[in-house]
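Q: Please design a sequence for this.
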């Protein structure tokens, strides 16, 4: 039976409203689960940069509990000074800062960005065991990101945890492989004069011993290596003031306080 145009329009409108409502409701129901998964993934990477074995065999709840027990965090500005709120007056929580939005050089000037610093505390609570610095950059095809753990001397690399969106499997994507990440361990950020050198991948993969500031590269992934090198050099430059102030003080630059409960804080990305 042929339907009138009005019937078709009304039916389509009702169907759109019903389906839209279902999708919206599903999104609301799933958001807490999605948020917890993002939180878990971030904290696993932070812990994994310090010690990949620290999360092995643990349930999600155990990982989150271990993180709360061993990690504290602050947010600093480009001058190494603590930041407690964003431009809108919202509390800044290091774990909730969206790097892709806040740290994309085309969206936010480096001088106005918030810079999270995570501190992995000694088991006996006597001080900082290592510092973890998050960073964000560009690979061959899309973004790359990382967490770099540095010993309490703020010079020796303790470990790294890298991620990427779409680097080539078997080539640039190898930055997430354990053998590649292990190359960074023990390398130095600063030379003997105190100048920032960072750590750089060389071109090619030769398997030869290198100096304190260079590691073996990735065969067939020169551009990914360049992007990784730029990210490391840029971000340790951004964190330079904080590192320098912390080195020159007996205590951490910013007073370590209990962070604002994440469920009560607002998203810091603009």
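A: Design:
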């Amino acid at each position: 039976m042929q339907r009138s145009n009005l019937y078709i329009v009304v039916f389509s409108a009702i169907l759109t409203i019903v389906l839209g409502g279902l999708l919206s409701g599903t999104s609301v129901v799933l958001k807490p689960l999605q948020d917890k998964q993002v939180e878990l993934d971030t904290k696993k990477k932070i812990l994994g940069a310090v010690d990949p074995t620290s999360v092995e065999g643990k349930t999600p709840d155990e990982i989150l509990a271990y993180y709360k027990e061993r990690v504290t965090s602050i947010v600093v500005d480009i001058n190494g000074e603590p930041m407690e709120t964003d431009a809108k007056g919202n509390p800044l929580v290091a774990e909730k800062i969206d790097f892709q939005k806040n740290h994309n050089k085309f969206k936010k000037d480096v001088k106005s960005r918030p810079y999270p610093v995570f501190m992995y505390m000694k088991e006996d609570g006597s001080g900082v065991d290592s510092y973890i610095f998050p960073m964000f950059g560009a690979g061959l095809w899309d973004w790359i990101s990382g967490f770099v753990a540095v010993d309490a001397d703020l010079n020796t690399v303790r470990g790294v945890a890298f991620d990427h969106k779409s680097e080539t499997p078997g080539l640039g994507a190898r930055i997430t492989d354990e053998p590649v990440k292990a190359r960074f361990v023990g390398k130095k950020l600063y030379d003997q004069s105190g100048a920032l050198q960072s750590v750089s991948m060389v071109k090619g993969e030769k398997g030869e011993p290198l100096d304190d500031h260079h590691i073996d590269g990735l065969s067939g992934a020169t551009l990914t290596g360049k992007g990784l090198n730029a990210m490391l050099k840029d971000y340790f430059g951004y964190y330079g003031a904080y590192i320098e102030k912390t080195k020159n003080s007996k205590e951490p630059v910013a007073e370590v306080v209990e962070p604002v409960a994440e469920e009560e804080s607002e998203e810091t990305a603009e």
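Q: Thanks. Anything notable?
A: Strands lie at 71-76, 115-121, 128-138, 143-151, 157-164, 200-201, 214-215. The longest strand covers residues 128-138.
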